[in-house]
Each structure stands twice: as structure tokens, then as C-alpha cells.
Amino acid sequence: MAVPPLSPGKRHRWPYLLERSGRPEMREESIMRNSNKYEIADVKRATEGRWDTVFQALCPQLEAALACPGHHVDCPIHGGKEDFRLDRGFKKRGTAICTCGNWDGFSLLKELNGWTLPEILEQIMGALGERAVEPLAPTKVAQPARPDAEKRDIRPTLRKRWQEALPLNRGEGRFIMASYLQFRGLPVKPMLALLEGEARVHPNLPYLEQGKVVGRYPTLLTLVRDAEGKPVTVHRTYLVRGADGIVQKAPVAKAKKLFPVVNGGEVSGGAIRLGAPSGGVLGIAEGIETALAVRAATGMVVWPVLSASLMGTFEPPEGLQEVVIWADRDLPDRKGRKAGQDAAKALQARLWEKGVKASVRIPNAPSTGEDKSVDWLMCT
User: Fold this and answer.
1) Are 293 and 376 members of one domain?
2) Domain range enclosing 160
3) Domain assignment present for 149
């Protein structure tokens, strides 16, 4: 199915740039193809489903996170209180998420221990008992992790907050969300209808920093579903309503947050499901607002996956024939990496391997500043 055309009668500043509609070229840096003794592909196969064994052997800094996957603990990298967590499904790819970054297992070992890629591959094979290797000490010292409290079921909290929240089809909930959509330049009525079944607005949700309530804000609550469609947590977007009535993101350190995942749940592979795929085609994007912008401009059903790291884990629903990945146009980090685009290309390659046609769209718009990336919301 072809990508639907842009809505007639509207001025759009972006074309579909860098469409990758065919099978992507499988090119990797030489160090990723072959690293001394070990092929990266062989080590990836060996680690799938076994990252708990790897981390237990090589990363004592992750003790607290390993004890309660999906729950926040003190970050072993930057020391932030209750900022870090291993994904519920981390055993598959080693996925970890924090306010200071996102990683798969290989990049997390590098971040924690400072090893080179050949050293990482060798130590992994040793940890898995595949080879006899000389243990290697970390070359960097990470912040010590604080033992976390006993794992508790987050369901009562999620249920309470959801029941306190307001529906989007009437009253204050509709007014707040309509004002926010209008501020973001999105069509109000169709987007409210799209969000209605999966989102609510909490009128006064506490915002915590270092375990203390520092403010209360109206907050968009959105269901996050796993790869099978079961709700496993709730995403929060903290908002603020000014004296002029305009609603925008709250002026806090982290306006977008995830509640912990329910016991036994996995956010890895999942998404926020804004509508059912049409004609076997589905779009995905990082952010909620980006997904809404693409839907408004093209009519395509687009699911937000919330981050570049989670984009890499996305699992298409049964029967899907084509995925269009609406990637952000990221500026390179200090190491030259473009997280969103890299994740999109990696997912594209993985989907083709599964027999699902995949293409990547990247905005054709200049950055508005040295530290600004460009997403599709900015281009509509």
C-alpha cells in the first residue's frame, strides 16, 4: 500500500525525504562485522535471552536493577536518584533506560566498564561460558547503585491515577487537551477522537524530584501496551495552563515520564496504540505529538513508541504487511551518533528480516539551532 498523499488545500513544508522503500543495505562498520576473535552477529545470537547472566557476571553495578526489572533505581552511571531501570524484557537485548541515556546490552557494558568492542565481545563470551577468557577489570568507575526497595505491584497506583483522570470527550479534560493540541498546531476534533480511548487528563498530578513533590500539574495520561496489546504502564506528559489559557508542556526537568511497568509486563516491543492499522500498513514514530502530526497530515495510523531505544525493540502486530518509520532528524551527539535515525534504520533492517516491508521517512527541514533536532511536528 502506498503512503497516502498529503491533505489537499494545505501548505506543507516537507516532502517524504529519504524514503527507504526497498530492502535496506546491510552495511556495518568493519569493527561491527568482525572484532578480533568474535563475529558480532555470533555474540548477538549468544546473548539473546541471556543478558541477565551477562550483567550478573560483568556488572555488579546493576545489582539493584537486576533485582527488580522495570522499576526505577539509582543510576549506576550518573548517580541520579530513581532515574535508571532495566526494561522488563531486558534479557532479550539488554535494554536499559535512564534520564541520562538509553542503551542496549553492548552499549551499556561500554558505558559502565569503559571497554572497547573487542573486549566487550570477549568478556561476554566468557561470561556465557562459551570461551575461557581472562577476566578484565572495568576501566572506569561508575556511581554506586543504592539497593532498591522490595518490588511492589504498580497496578493499584496506575488504577488510582487513571480513575482520578478526566475523559477527553467532555468537561475540563476535553478543554485542557483541546488547548494543548491547539498550542501544538494540531487539529483538535479528530485528534481528540483518536486519543479518547487510550488517554485521559489528570487535573492535578504530583510531580516528584528526588522523591519529593515539587509541584502539581494537569497531565496527559496515555496507555502503553506491550507487543500483544495488553496495557503494561502509563505514559505521563506534564502540562501547565497559563493565565492566558494556553496549555503547553510544564516547565519541569522531565515533562515526559513513564510509570513503572506492571509486574510480569514488558514495555519492550510495545507502543501507544492510536488506532488500528489500515490495509496492513502502520506508521510508527517516537513521540505522541509527532505521531499525531503525521496522522493529521497523511491519514496514516501511527503509533508512538516513546523513545529511540524502544523503537529498536518494536514488534509488529500479527498480519502487518508494511511499517513506515517516521524518524526524527537528529543532530549527531558528541560521538557522531544520531539516536533516532540509527534506531529507525536498525528497526527497518530487522523488519525486513521478519518479512515485513519497511521504509524510513526523515524530515527535510533545517534545524532551528545548534542543539535542536527536527521532528515531523515541526514540519506540518
Assistant:
1) yes
2) 155-258
3) no
Using one digit for the tens of pLDDT, what is the confidence trace for 230-274? 999 999 999 999 888 899 999 998 899 988 888 888 888 899 999
Residue 29: pLDDT band (50, 70, 90) is very low
Give the model confidence (pLDDT) of 126-148 as tens digits. Answer: 888 876 556 565 555 444 443 44
Parallel, antiparallel or unpaired: strands 357-361 and 322-326: parallel
One domain, residues 292 and 354: yes
Nearest alpha carbon to residue 360 among 314, 246, 242, 68: 314
Q: Which residues of 40-54 are buried (b: 16+ CB within 10 A; e: fewer)?
A: beebeebbeebbeeb
**pTM exceeding 0.85:** no
Domain count, the chain: 3
Higher pLDDT, 248 or 377: 248
- How far apart CA 364 and CA 301 sit, in angstroms, is 21
Three cell numbers at 101? 541515556
Domain contains 134: no
Instruction: Count Cβ atoms below 10 Å from residue 19 Cβ, excluding itself.
Output: 13
Indicate whether 274 and 380 sit together in one domain. Answer: yes
Domain C-terminal end among 206, 225, 258: 258
How far apart CA 322 and CA 283 sit, in angstroms, is 8
